[in-house]
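Loading example: each entry is read as two labelled lines plus one structure line.
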Amino acid sequence: MTPSTPSDSDRLLLDRAIDGELTAAEQERLRRRLSEDPEFREEHRDHETVVRLLRELGQSTPVPSDDFMAERRSLIMAQTVERETAQAELSDARAGLLKAALSLVASIAIFAVAVWVGLRQPDGQVGATAPSSTTVLSTEAVDALVASDRELAVGMLALAPPGGLGRVDLALMIGEDF
Amino acid sequence: MHSEIAALVERFVAGDDSAFAELVARYERKVYQVAFQIVRNHYDADEVVQETFVRIFKRRNELGKVSSFTSFLLRVATNYAIDLHRRQRSHDRWPEEDTPAMAQLQTILSADVRTPGDDFRDRRLMVEIIRALDTLPPRQRLTAILHDVQGYSKREVAEILECPEATVRSNLHIARTKLKKILRKRLRTEE
């Protein structure tokens, strides 16, 4: 056969030969080409050299020591499992704190509602204990007080500042001038 | 082996931390070796190993859907290694006398490592091939590293790189041909 520049299909044949993928017929074709064509032989030799060097490169990869790898493993576990555990604990702590804060707010709200409801009671016990407070002079408080104790209302009117909130209602309820 | 790995992965996904530790122990060297061939220095290969397993840990919910844990792991590793290597090159971190190729040359020339064709010409060729590999586009380079350097099959490389096997064949062929041309040219220049 006349020597010729190897074609792409020749090179593919070389690739497959190096990777051990040729059929019997292809092996025969390769053998014939190699024996007849020096240029193809050179191509084959260079191709083999490249692949051999690449394979040897793999064998020359440094292998870290067992101690080094064990140290790295600890570091990886610290960055993953242990960090996640710590984050979960932090998250639990935050949730506990939030729960406590919500409980406190709820307690304050319940207390405030209780005070407000107490001020609305018809017997007026809560309101009666704070005659000087402007809260006592609110319309609702006055209604409650007048209904239960007119005399107390008179006292309230006397204590209420002129023009104070609810003074008119208070006076009208007990039938006096305001 | 495969079913053993599959069982470990299943336990890991279910939240068993000891299964994760076992997977790290089994695969860390494999990841290191592939990473080293891409980044060409110990420090970055070490970083790739750590970052790969941290990413795997974070993405453990995806593991139920992957067909091969090894391929998924090496895909994460090679993607990170390629990015790291690209960043290094763009920042030009390595002075001329301290290139990754030269660092690996030191390893090759050290007394501990004996190359099978142990003569000067082979060693020089080895350095040339490391330099030549660096000039290839990432996909061709990765294909050559995974197949020829690390010895993965074409099917495995296709799974790692998420491409058809035909693409692996084609990239491998192009990579080998380019490497051959570069080697010939350099050796001819020196002669």
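Chain B touches chain A through 47 residues (CB under 8 Å).
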